[in-house]
Amino acid sequence: MSQSPELFWFTLELAAAGVFAGVIAGVLAGLFGIGGGAILVPVFYQALGLLEVDDAVRMHLSIGTSLAIIVPTSIRSFMAHHKRGAVDMDLLRSWLLPVPAGVVAASLIVAFVSSAALRGIFAVIAILVGLRMLFNRQGWRLGSDLPGNPARAAVGAVIGLLSALMGIGGGVLNNTFMTLFGRPVHQAVATSAGVGALISIPGLIGYVWAGWGVAGLPPFSTGFVNWVAVLLIIPITMMAAPLGVRLAHALDKRQLEVAFGLFMLLVAARFLYSLG
């Protein structure tokens, strides 16, 4: 990649792949009403495969880049929800240390595990999320209010760990936690934006550190974060998301849950197949 013409054409192809990934992720994120990490990681993974990026770093790069993209979107969403008074600030304050601690643990894991291991982790979590969406029932409850410490801190650390290993902002996991303990779904969604910031900011730093100096990374990458993809995908997903939102309004909430559940199971099957 050191020769100028090769670098130019590879960068152009990477930009095209970023546009493709951004459009697909934006439409699907708007359709399913989530931050896009669970969608962006498999889409970006496929796009990097088309560019013949080294398989040893493809999954790491997909997850790290996804977390970098979540940083501005989660902060913007949190500020908007906070202005409306919809965020559970007590929960966020209690998670200021546990959630980032889980992310740090994930970064340490990422520095030493293979691409195959990360795909396996993603697939297992995707299966659990997909089954949860397929069999979700509004009446399911584990309690009438959120648990106190140390259980609450442990949940925060697990959400940070799993989300950072999967490249997501933790929305699906936090929404499940809060609604199972009687919190309104709107409050859960609003609070998840803040959780996304607690995950993505240290996650971005952790994936840069974990990938520092690793061979096989494409141009304009700092560790496991590719800045061409970041700069392209953020505005493109924002432009493409309204199309997904229009599609979402043609379906009811249960249909969306089933569709997203099936999508996650399909992604899990794709990653498990790649391990064969």
From TrEMBL:
<feature type="transmembrane region" description="Helical">
    <location>
        <begin position="224"/>
        <end position="244"/>
    </location>
</feature>
<feature type="transmembrane region" description="Helical">
    <location>
        <begin position="95"/>
        <end position="113"/>
    </location>
</feature>
<keyword id="KW-0472">Membrane</keyword>
<keyword id="KW-1003">Cell membrane</keyword>
<protein>
    <recommendedName>
        <fullName>Probable membrane transporter protein</fullName>
    </recommendedName>
</protein>
<keyword id="KW-1133">Transmembrane helix</keyword>
<feature type="transmembrane region" description="Helical">
    <location>
        <begin position="189"/>
        <end position="212"/>
    </location>
</feature>
<feature type="transmembrane region" description="Helical">
    <location>
        <begin position="118"/>
        <end position="135"/>
    </location>
</feature>
<feature type="transmembrane region" description="Helical">
    <location>
        <begin position="256"/>
        <end position="273"/>
    </location>
</feature>
<feature type="transmembrane region" description="Helical">
    <location>
        <begin position="20"/>
        <end position="45"/>
    </location>
</feature>
<dbReference type="Pfam" id="PF01925">
    <property type="entry name" value="TauE"/>
</dbReference>
<dbReference type="InterPro" id="IPR002781">
    <property type="entry name" value="TM_pro_TauE-like"/>
</dbReference>
<feature type="transmembrane region" description="Helical">
    <location>
        <begin position="57"/>
        <end position="75"/>
    </location>
</feature>
<keyword id="KW-0812">Transmembrane</keyword>
<feature type="transmembrane region" description="Helical">
    <location>
        <begin position="155"/>
        <end position="177"/>
    </location>
</feature>
<dbReference type="GO" id="GO:0005886">
    <property type="term" value="C:plasma membrane"/>
</dbReference>
<comment type="similarity">
    <text>Belongs to the 4-toluene sulfonate uptake permease (TSUP) (TC 2.A.102) family.</text>
</comment>
